[in-house]
Amino acid sequence: MYAVVGARIHTAGPKGILEDAAIIVQYGKIVDVTPGRSVPVGCEVIDATGKEIVPGFIDAHSHAGMESEGLTVLDANESTDPVNPHLWALDAFNPVEKGLARCVAGGVTTIGLLPGSPMSFGGLVEQIGVVEGMGSAIKTVTKNGQPQILRERAGLKMALGEHPKRFFRESKKAPATRMNIMAMIREVLEKGRNGQVEPKFRNVAGLLKREFPARIHVHRVQDILAALRLQEEYKFDMVLEHVTEGYMVADILKDRGVPCVVGPVPMTRRGSELQNLTLSNAVILAQRGVKVAITCDHPTFPAWYLPYHAGMLVREGMGYDQALKAITIIPAEILGVSDRVGSLEPGKDADFVVFQGDPLEITSRIEAVVSDGRVVAGKLDCMSAAAGGTESWEGRRVC
Q1: Does 376 lie in the same domain as 276?
Q2: Are residues 308 and 231 both part of a single domain?
Q3: Predicted confidence band of residue 388 (pLDDT cuts 50, 70, 90)
Q4: Mean local confidence (pLDDT), 166-173
Q5: Last residue of a domain, which of 313, 335, 357?
Q6: How confident is the model at residue 163 (pLDDT cuts 50, 70, 90)?
Q7: Residues 192 and 234 grouped into a single domain
Q8: Are 54 and 353 in contact (CB under 8 A)?
Q9: Cis check: omega of the bond before 264, within 30 degrees of 0
Q10: What InterPro entries has UniProt attached to this entry (predicted)?
Q11: Is the bond preceding residue 346 a cis peptide, omega within 30 degrees?
Q12: Residues 318, 281 contacting (CB under 8 angstroms)
């Protein structure tokens, strides 16, 4: 058992922010987060006076680990067919991709790994299907070369709008219109609710049983409203991705209780779907009562930029605590893994980040990243309460 004491701890949970507090860890789990420096007898103590601690960051919409950390993610999307509900993002996951290590070093400990959207900034056409496959919630720290899966079926990815329409039209395949995109999705949903479901559509059957949500890529109001019509028609759970014009229909999204994964926040108005982009989108949605997480859409922006994107939202008017929750507990809830990660509470995984300063300030240095109780990036200085000695904590896990 060990305790990190003396820090300002942002729990992202019911206890809020605790000053001069302690987080106590055993067997990779959080035992307690408490004000003051009192710790159990025999507990090894790490002095973090003047530091700030936050939960490990979570990006609910990521392609990290899918082939390359550059501007293309070649294995992220099956471009030969627009309808692929039977595919799994996990099957394209590369556990030694260098971008994953950089995610860890940047404090991103959990991602929603989704198929779709390989892109190049040299061209405007993104390869993205209509029904792209199943995403999973995983830790960014692998174990024995395998992903640590928190939720295997975290959402069936779909896409509306210009990207699938334009890509397949230029490939001289259907769909070439929004009408055909919607028709294709309806056909898939009908096959998923038949009594005898063939293997390709078993994930669709699970969606219609509300075992997991649809994760639907949308930008424009017309596509947001189309997604809402599909949901009303087929009664599935849904999360909207990107939602660039969501602020225009914020009250409708609130009334329907649809969570939104917004971002990347500082995108340029590249292409027709982003012409109404505003940095205040996520702020307005949150103020109207919509559950909002933000995404870097790695590798569009590297996932380790998450706290800086959250800081931009604070500048635009979002409350500090709300912005921090948009990259911690809210994406955990959207991914269905908030019982394990997303806030610093007893019984949850000991995933946290120790900062030298304000976690949402771009100049603040990360001192250490801890995943499942183990230091996986940076280091901590250990001061044993029993022996009074000091040593370096790097890659250690104490039981």
Answers
A1: no
A2: yes
A3: very low
A4: 75
A5: 335
A6: confident
A7: yes
A8: yes
A9: yes
A10: Amidohydro_3, Metal-dep_hydrolase_composite, Metal_Hydrolase, Metallo-dep_Hydrolase
A11: no
A12: no
